[in-house]
Amino acid sequence: MSRVGVIGAGIMGGGVAQSLATAGHDVVLIDVSKDILDSTATRIRTELRLSRLVGATKEPVDTDRALRAITFTTDYADLHDVDFVIENVTESWEIKQRVYPVLDDVCPPHCVFAANTSALPITRLASLTRRAPQVLGIHFMNPVPMKPVVELIPGHHTTPATVATAEELLATMGKTAIVVNDSPGFVSNRVLMLTINEAAFLVHEGVATAEQVDAVFTSCFGHPMGPLATADLIGVDTILRSIEVLHDSFNDSKYRPCPLLKQMVDAGLQGRKTRQGFFSYGSHGWEADR
């Protein structure tokens, strides 16, 4: 698996590409516009240099070599010789269902497809392809380069060989997989999205401020980050889409999205990536004030 395709150059996709490149893989990173790709290249360069300066990596990172290992492109045809694809597009069935048939056509027959999704069922995504046995889910945690564990989700048709291939690739990235069954939200987001949604309701109803909600979790429970700071890190828009997917999938009112989340997304308050969410952030996305 020397060559890996990564679809989507947002926060997650960029983090996946960075992790693959520093692990020694050649990466083809695809997004819809050159501006997005240029912005991601700048972000990856900055994060690699910062990680080297603060000693965040066990081995020295050659920033220039890692960036040279990534091909930034808008052309799906550049995936013609990849061995593995990790898809990170927006958490939307309408968007994802347009991507997989294209991947199926351009990627070689042996290529494995991994959906980096937090909520959509893997079996449903695999049905969009002619290679369901070679499709599975890998739910990376954010920020990808810093998180050593992922959820790995086989679909109904996924073969043990495909799971083993994914685990081998993840091992080269220094990541361990926890294999769970295919269900909307899997394990992490079935719990986390409910927690974040309920925390948003507390702010929406005036029960507590965002600062107070997170302080309960960090001070009383010892969590390194509160649920609303976590929402800002993931992206409030992504949180909303994930909750909506769970609500649609289970038809259960407990997943009813908090109106505050919808209002924040409409206002462009999406968290760290827009420098304002439940909390405010500085020009580099670091927390400035709470």
| Strands, count | 10
CATH class of the largest domain: Alpha Beta
**Strand content bin:** 5-15%
**Mean model confidence by pLDDT:** 93
User: Uncertain runs with pLDDT below 50, 5 residues or more?
Assistant: none
Q: Report, as a whole number of angstroms, the end-to-end distance.
A: 44 Å
Q: What is the total number of structural domains?
A: 2
Kindly name the structural category: alpha/beta
Calculate Rg over CA atoms.
19 Å
* CATH architecture label name of the largest domain: 3-Layer(aba) Sandwich
Shape: globular
CATH topology assignment of the largest domain: Rossmann fold
Helicity level: 40-55%
Question: Could you describe the 3D structure shown?
Answer:
The chain has 290 residues and is α/β, with parallel strands linked by helices. Helix content is 44%, strand content 14%. It contains eleven helices and ten strands. Strands 3-2-1-4-5-6-7-8 form an eight-stranded mixed beta sheet. The chain has a two-stranded antiparallel sheet with strand order 9-10. The N and C termini lie far apart (44 Å). The relative contact order is 0.10. It has two domains: 3-179, 3-Layer(aba) Sandwich (Rossmann fold); 188-281, N-(1-d-carboxylethyl)-l-norvaline Dehydrogenase, domain 2 (Orthogonal Bundle), CATH 1.10.1040.10. The mean pLDDT is 93.
Helices and strands in order:
Elements: E1 3-7, H1 11-22, E2 26-30, H2 34-53, H3 63-68, E3 70-73, E4 84-87, H4 93-106, E5 112-115, H5 122-126, E6 135-139, E7 149-154, H6 160-172, E8 176-179, H7 188-204, H8 210-220, H9 227-234, H10 236-250, H11 259-266, E9 280-281, E10 287-289
Helix pairs in contact: 1-2, 7-9, 7-10, 10-11
